[in-house]
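Assess this:
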Amino acid sequence: MRKRRQDYFKREEGAPVPLRCTVEHRVLFGEVDAMAILWHGHYTRLFELAATELRRKIGLSYEDFFLAKLRAPIVQLHVDYKKPLVLDELARIQAEIIWSDAARINIEYTVFKEDGSVSATGTTVQLFTDPEGVPCWIMPELLARTQQRWKEGLLIKELAVS
């Protein structure tokens, strides 16, 4: 079994610590293949469950994007499979937003099996665009406000309370 790289995204010197959120999901019958293991394509859905909750908690939900007249499509996705999840297994999915000075959201994921071992790891990159899909070359106000709260340590405190 290949060993996971330490980090997928480069950590910038002096950048705030990653923002982290963990959710749980029980593997459903409709998510498994004939071998009763989670179909490989559903790992991206697990990533989305954790990322959505993390972004919601810090003020970067899809509703926030729409209100700010922004979109944030995924432009990169990567998955490393380690050990399969099986039918009825309770998985924990951890998402970590990694600091970036660009108009994008870099998220690293770890999916844990019920016994605590790692099932999969991966990443997504979301690029901010306007509603027509034109990339934002300058930092959108919504992201700038969130990053300011992150730099001030407020988001870490909010995540610890929730």
The chain is about 25% helix and 25% strand.
